[in-house]
Amino acid sequence: MGTIRVVLAEDHALMRDAVKLVFDEDEEIQLVGEVSNGHELLPLLKTVDADFVLLDVHLPGLDGLGCLEALAEHYPHVKVAMLSAVEDPQVIDSAFRRGAGGYILKSVNPFDLPAAIRQIVEGSVIHRPLAAENGARRPKSATGLSDKEVAVLTELCHGYTNKQIAVRLWLSEQTVKFHLRNIYRKLGIKRRTEALQYAYEHDLALASTPSG
């Protein structure tokens, strides 16, 4: 995969700065433009060669869902992912019905954004916002683990490799390894097989089901 040219549509300056810092560290992601108002997005796309739009749901002027409709009509070749703090299932469903290729919650580790973008461009992403699903399904027996650690452990129970877990949960493979190290440390174990045994003994294997 070559360089992915990204336009960022986000009205919060701090969020734009955080995303730009992450993109600056990734040679395969190039930020070619940014807007803080939905009405500015289409005019900008006329002036830049973009492959991807990272789009906030709540934008002044024209909101993210309205932008999705305009993008689908005028720039159907451009991939789009929502970047939002909104976890409302109706909003998420509406975004996908209007053409979003992914929905990324703002609680994501910023350094996982490039991996998520690459996966969306490749069409290899499971379309689900991690925090929204796993937060609702977190079992009481896993109170010592974070939501993301529970998500990684349950995916492990379904037989997925680190690389496959990274794709399914919109994480980099390095982040998956980081979560596994934390899981081993918190549970006082050293091997993958021990993690699986713990998960089955505490019903974590039932906390989520495989997604197709």
What share of residues is helical?
40-55%
Cα separation of the termini: 24 Å
β-strand number? 5
Overall structural class, as computed from helix and strand content, comes to alpha/beta
Please list the strands of the largest sheet in the order they lie side by side.
Answer: 2-1-3-4-5
Mean pLDDT: 82
Descriptive notes:
- The chain has 212 residues and is α/β, with parallel strands linked by helices.
- The chain is built from 10 helices and 5 strands; from the N terminus they run E-H-E-H-E-H-E-H-E-H-H-H-H-H-H.
- It has helices spanning 13-24, 41-45, 64-74, 89-97, 113-122, 130-137, 147-157, 162-169, 173-187, 192-201, and strands spanning 4-9, 29-35, 52-56, 79-84, 102-105.
- It is elongated.
- Residues 125-141 and 207-212 have low confidence and may be disordered.
Question: What are the SSEs and their pairings?
Answer:
Blueprint: E1 4-9, H1 13-24, E2 29-35, H2 41-45, E3 52-56, H3 64-74, E4 79-84, H4 89-97, E5 102-105, H5 113-122, H6 130-137, H7 147-157, H8 162-169, H9 173-187, H10 192-201
Parallel strand pairs: 1-2, 1-3, 3-4, 4-5
Helix pairs in contact: 6-7, 7-9, 7-10, 8-9
Question: Main attributes?
Answer:
single chain, alpha/beta, 5-stranded parallel β-sheet, 10 helices, disordered C terminus
Structure described in brief:
The chain is α/β, with parallel strands linked by helices and 212 residues long.
